[in-house]
Amino acid sequence: MRLLVAAATTFELEPLQQFLAQRFQQTGGNHYRRESLEISICITGIGSMQTAFNLAESIAAFDPHFCLQAGVAGAFDRNLLLGELVIVQEEVLGDLGVEDNGRFRDMFDIGLMDAQERPFINKKLINTFSDFPLRLNLPFVSALTVNTVSGTESTISSRTEHYACALESMEGAAFHYVCLTKKIPFLQVRSISNYVEPRDKSRWKMKEAIEKLNSWLIANISQTLQKSV
Questions:
Q1: Residue of 172, 150, 147, 175 whose CA lies nearest to 162
Q2: Using an 8 Å Cβ cutoff, are 210 and 72 in contact?
Q3: Half-sphere exposure of 159 (CA within 13 A, CB side)
Q4: Beta strands in 97-217 (DSSP E)
Q5: Which residues pair with 125 in a beta bridge?
Q6: Where residue 71 sits, what CATH number does that domain have?
């Protein structure tokens, strides 16, 4: 099986890459092989533009059977604990639109995009695949993708009211869009590093979130490897 693992930044996958370097044969760059399992790491860069391009390039070069996006995210939902892992089932574009007399209207609202045109379903990019090689022992949530992370009470309140999503990231929708368009089974797994609130990095749990994310990745890759032997 060929598994492509994507993340926005190198440090989000650093423990995983150390594990792969120790346990797998590195066949070049960020490519690893052991038995019948091949893994390619794609560091997409920050934001939708870089993610869409670099992910599409990696898919074209590697031809994966399955894509996994892994990273940290901020949570609107305070019922989610910092460090908790979730699977993002559906993504929404959070700031692609216009300001119209003090009100935000998205591209679907103003008729420049069709809310039902594939891969969108009612404005959402929904993971409709069901054949997964990884354990789905995590809660499923919705997420909002934005170019500018929410950092004021007014923005947070507006986005919470308009979209009612559990998470916020800068890359998730691009990942869903590419995989749905190319019809490649995929999962997006996120670890909660902070709550969406006026920016205060002293309250973030970035280290803990990354540790828990990579522990889950390593456990699942080890289990997948055992199944493939």
A1: 150
A2: yes
A3: 29
A4: 97-100, 103-106, 125-126, 140-145, 167-169, 186-195
A5: 91
A6: 3.40.50.1580
Angle among Cα 190, 224, 41 to the nearest 5 degrees reads: 55
Give 59-106 pLDDT, tens digit per residue.
Answer: 999 999 999 999 999 999 999 999 999 999 999 999 999 999 888 899
**Distance in angstroms (rounded) separating the CA atoms of residues 134 and 188:** 11
- Asked if 47 and 171 count as a contact pair (C-beta separation under 8 A), the reply is yes
Cβ burial of 60 (10 Å; 0-12, 13-18, 19+) is exposed
C-alpha dihedral (122, 124, 129, 134), degrees to nearest 10: -150
For residue 228, the model assigns a pLDDT of 57
Determine the 3-state secondary structure of 85 from DSSP.
strand
Can you tell me the distance from the alpha carbon of 167 to that of 146, in angstroms, rounded to the nearest whole number?
A: 11
> How many domains are contained in the chain?
1
Gap between the Cα atoms of 168 and 170, Å rounded: 7
Phi, psi at 180, each rounded to 5° = -65, -40
What are the tokens at 21? Answer: 């370097």
How many whole angstroms separate alpha carbon 153 and alpha carbon 116?
A: 32
Residue recorded with tokens 């997948």: 224
Q: By residue range, what is the domain housing residue 33? A: 2-228
**Sign of the alpha-carbon dihedral angle for 168, 169, 170, 176:** negative
* Residue 131, pLDDT above cutoff 80: no
* pLDDT tens string 4-15: 999 999 999 999
Instruction: Kindly tell me if the per-residue pLDDT of 136 is higher than 80.
Output: no
Q: Residue type at 83? A: G
Give the mean pLDDT of 173-180: 98
